[in-house]
Write a structure and sequence with these properties.
alpha/beta; 32% helix; Rossmann fold
Length: 423
């Protein structure tokens, strides 16, 4: 497949190098068209090395081939990432003042924009009007992720992760991600339609709490169980929103996706989206603590300086806040929590999980017992299989589910449907 990758002039341009690699490793032929401004961030040599094709942004290069017409005609798909506010405005206005905008005017296949800019620019009425104009013409514009931006500020405006853009792009041309990267078992027929029209919010992945510009505190979550839940809910006909921290697997096509990084970013995005959800599934592995301060420079290891002492502060309890938010709005929302538990000398994992269920107040709690398995390998995190116990606040008998993470997800979705009276 012939793909054109347009690169706008934002600092997030470096992430598009990773997106380019995903396209080429999937066997696609990619022509990169950087805007002149973007070459201030990533030079043409990088794009040529990764794509193994010549790169230009000048309409007067290769005039004999009429590049500004030919490239657009030959493209099966055009992806613009990052799409800056200026680039969105020029595309909406039909400008043709460089090779990328002329190529966009010649496009006859699907076009996908992945915006990246500061929050105020994204939320400005002009940008929103330009996005609405593009979408009204059939152009696909992703919502930006919520997260840390160029400066110390956070909010919507962050470029979605390359895996998210890749999955969305492949969905536009009817292709899935590579089978090795995203196994998608066929959903059992029993799931078909059981959540039709139900709005499901799912969180996934493991949050990262920065120590300095290089290091962070994280956890072992791969995001596999959360993405499996999203796939199962989509197969059941739900309208799925997936808010995810960093994951080892791409988000499934068909879900509305928001990428975040820290627990505070997850809190902000989740509380904003929970108000319109019928079901909330909190599968993300959220850091309980974060550093009290973040170093603006890399923390150096020096022989003549004492080792640093890192002070941690408690992160908010997002699940408990979602439950409280439901009560404040007098909603009939179903809330499902996840708990990764271990036993100790005082109690086993199930006892701790039951106490957590009562403390959090969610309707269902899906419990993983984590830690080394019998063979010494990690029991849950990063694995393709899982075994869970699902506890209910109303005292219903616990439900056991095991197998692949997709099979576990199917069991959770089926139980949700039963609780809603739809399955």
């Amino acid at each position: 497949m012939n793909i054109v990758l347009g690169v706008g002039g934002g600092i997030a341009a470096y992430k598009s190098a990773l997106l380019l690699r995903l396209f080429t490793e999937a066997g696609h032929r990619v022509t990169v068209i950087p805007t002149e401004a973007s070459t201030k961030f990533v030079g043409a040599a990088t794009w040529e090395a990764l794509s193994r094709r010549p790169v230009t942004n000048d309409v007067f290069d290769a005039v004999d081939q009429v590049n500004h017409v030919r490239i657009g005609h030959e493209a099966d798909l055009i992806v613009v990432a990052p799409a800056t506010a200026d680039l969105l405005a020029r595309a909406a206005g039909g400008h043709a003042d460089d090779l990328l905008t002329t190529t966009l005017l010649m496009a006859r296949g699907p076009v996908l924009f992945a915006p990246a800019m500061h929050t105020e620019m994204w939320q400005h009425a002009s940008t929103q009007a330009n996005v609405a104009t593009l979408r009204s013409r059939g152009v696909h514009v992703l919502d930006p992720a919520v997260g840390r931006l160029t400066g110390p500020d956070t909010g919507p405006g962050r470029l979605p992760e390359p895996e998210v853009i890749f999955a969305a792009a492949m969905a536009l041309v009817g292709e899935g991600a590579p089978a090795a990267a995203t196994p998608e078992p066929e959903a059992p027929g029993a799931l078909a339609g059981v959540l039709a029209g139900v709005r499901v919010l799912i969180t996934a992945g493991g949050t990262r709490e920065p120590l300095d510009p290089v290091r962070y505190l994280g956890n072992r979550s791969s995001g596999k169980q959360g993405t499996a839940l999203a796939e199962a809910a989509l197969a059941a006909g739900a309208d799925v929103t997936l808010i995810h921290a960093p994951m080892e697997v791409p988000a499934p096509a068909g879900a509305k996706v928001q990428a975040i990084e820290t627990a505070l970013e997850l809190r902000s995005a989740t509380l904003a989206a929970a108000g319109v959800a019928d079901v909330v599934i909190m599968a993300a592995a959220v850091a309980d603590f974060r550093p009290s301060s973040i170093s603006t420079g890399k923390i150096k290891k020096r022989d003549h300086v004492a080792d640093p002492v890192i002070t941690l502060v408690r992160n908010p309890d997002i699940l408990a806040e979602v439950v409280a938010h439901r009560a404040a709005l007098n909603q009939t929302q179903l809330i499902v929590g996840f708990a990764a538990e271990t036993g100790d000398d005082e109690a086993d994992a199930s006892t701790y999980a039951q106490a957590k269920l009562e403390r959090k107040g969610c309707d269902l709690l899906v419990v993983n017992e984590v830690g080394p398995g019998d063979t010494g390998s990690e029991r849950v995190f990063g694995q393709d299989s899982n075994h869970v116990e699902i506890l209910a606040l109303d005292g219903a008998s616990p439900v056991q589910a095991g197998g692949s993470k997709r099979e576990v997800a199917d069991a959770v979705v089926q139980l949700i449907a039963q609780r809603l009276g739809t399955g």
